[in-house]
């Protein structure tokens, strides 16, 4: 099988030189193991901090010269476990490769049927949990709230826009460029801001939210987080999900509105989707219901072939993806 390895740690933006595609012969399975032919694997922004050494992240850094990992979906092609038979659809964490060998208990059984493989790396996987628990639990968003979400055309953001509308909130989304803004409007957002258009972001946010914000779902950090603190209402809740705008930079961050955390009694809370693993079935039931009723649209930016892995990953930082970025490996 072939797998992408990290051969050097990126300085700033990652480049092709940081990666190598390596081939290793498949060993015979041990008792309790399965072999999976991956159909898709996920590329995610959090993988960038994992490429740094000793990064104070929530997941161990990638080892150099070892196959990289991440979420993947595929079919069992060989098994020495009675948990799975050949042909079963599973998800697991050995992405960035075409075939994965793992212990059966490290794979999650997925239902057969009409749902596409892609959906288990998106709305019915970790991305769905991030949007659902981030919005409803971490930010305690409720009907009638004014909610601002950044990177609203991306995987997490596009779900947040839709589920916030389904629960009766007013939604403001930000994205880069006219095409993405039109996409976010099509998801049902009440106001959309092109953060790449000229002028201070805070002015644009204030114009879109004349009554202030009750909730900010932060995917990017930096200027948009600062602006949200600037115009937030008293007791507003901030779910700090990600800070993609800062992952490739070591530059110190300045906030001009930080004092507002005190004056407005802002509740700012970071979270990781896995914090909510014990409640995964609640999320799946609700998201699954909305998907089955056609109330949630999914959009994928799919890169073809294992070879395209790094390119797919780079696209996250240049805004090359709309909806969930995935690599199609086969099947
Ligand atoms: P996305 O699909 O949203 O892809 C990233 C998007 O971020 C790009 O498409 C781009 O959109 C935008 N972007 C890139 N660089 C910048 C920048 N400098 N400033 C503003 N926007 C930028 O990725 P995900 O949905 O997977 O992840 C979104 C965020 O959520 C990330 O910060 C990620 O780390 C975080 N996350 C956190 C999780 C958790 O458990 N806490 C779980 C999953 C994700 P545009 O073209 O609009 O700029």
Automatic annotation (TrEMBL):
Keywords: Oxidoreductase
Gene3D superfamilies: Medium-chain alcohol dehydrogenases, catalytic domain (3.90.180.10), NAD(P)-binding Rossmann-like Domain (3.40.50.720)
Protein name, UniProt field: Oxidoreductase
Alphabetized SUPFAM superfamilies for the sequence: GroES-like, NAD(P)-binding Rossmann-fold domains
Enoyl reductase (ER) domain residues: 14-327
InterPro entries attached to this UniProt entry: ADH-like_C (IPR013149), ADH_N_2 (IPR041694), ER (IPR020843), GroES-like_sf (IPR011032), MDR_fam (IPR045010), NAD(P)-bd_dom_sf (IPR036291)
Presence of the UniProt keyword Iron in the record: no
Molecular function per GO: oxidoreductase activity, acting on the CH-CH group of donors, NAD or NADP as acceptor
Oxidoreductase among keywords: yes
Lineage: Bacteria, Pseudomonadati, Pseudomonadota, Alphaproteobacteria, Acetobacterales
């Amino acid at each position: 099988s072939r797998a992408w390895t990290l051969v050097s740690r990126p300085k700033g933006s990652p480049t092709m030189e940081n990666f190598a595609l390596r081939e290793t012969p498949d060993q015979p399975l041990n008792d309790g193991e399965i072999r999976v032919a991956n159909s898709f694997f996920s590329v995610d922004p959090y993988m960038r901090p994992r490429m740094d050494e000793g990064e104070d992240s929530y997941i161990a850094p990638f080892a150099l010269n070892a196959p990289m990992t991440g979420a993947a979906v595929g079919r069992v092609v060989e098994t020495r476990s009675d948990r799975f038979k050949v042909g079963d659809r599973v998800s697991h964490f050995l992405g960035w490769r075409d075939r994965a060998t793992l212990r059966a208990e490290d794979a999650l059984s997925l239902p057969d049927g009409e749902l596409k493989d892609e959906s288990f790396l998106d709305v019915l996987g970790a991305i769905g949990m991030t949007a659902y628990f981030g919005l409803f639990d971490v930010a305690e968003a409720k009907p009638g709230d004014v909610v601002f979400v950044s990177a609203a055309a991306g995987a997490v953001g596009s779900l947040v826009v839709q589920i916030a509308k389904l629960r009766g909130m007013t939604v403001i989304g930000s994205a880069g460029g006219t095409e993405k803004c039109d996409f976010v409007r099509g998801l049902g957002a009440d106001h959309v801001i092109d953060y790449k258009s000229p002028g201070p972001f805070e002015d644009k946010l204030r114009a879109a939210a004349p009554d202030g914000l009750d909730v900010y779902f932060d995917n990017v950090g930096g200027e948009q987080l600062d602006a949200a603190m600037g115009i937030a209402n008293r007791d507003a809740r901030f779910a700090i999900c990600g800070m993609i705008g800062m992952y490739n930079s070591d530059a110190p961050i300045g906030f001009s509105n930080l004092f507002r955390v005190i004056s407005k009694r802002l509740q700012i809370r970071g979270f990781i989707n896995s914090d909510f693993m014990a409640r995964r079935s609640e999320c799946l039931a609700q998201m699954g219901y909305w998907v089955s009723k056609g109330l949630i649209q999914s959009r994928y930016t799919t890169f073809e072939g294992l070879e395209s892995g790094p390119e797919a990953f780079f696209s996250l930082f240049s805004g090359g993806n709309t909806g969930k970025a995935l690599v199609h490996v086969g099947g």
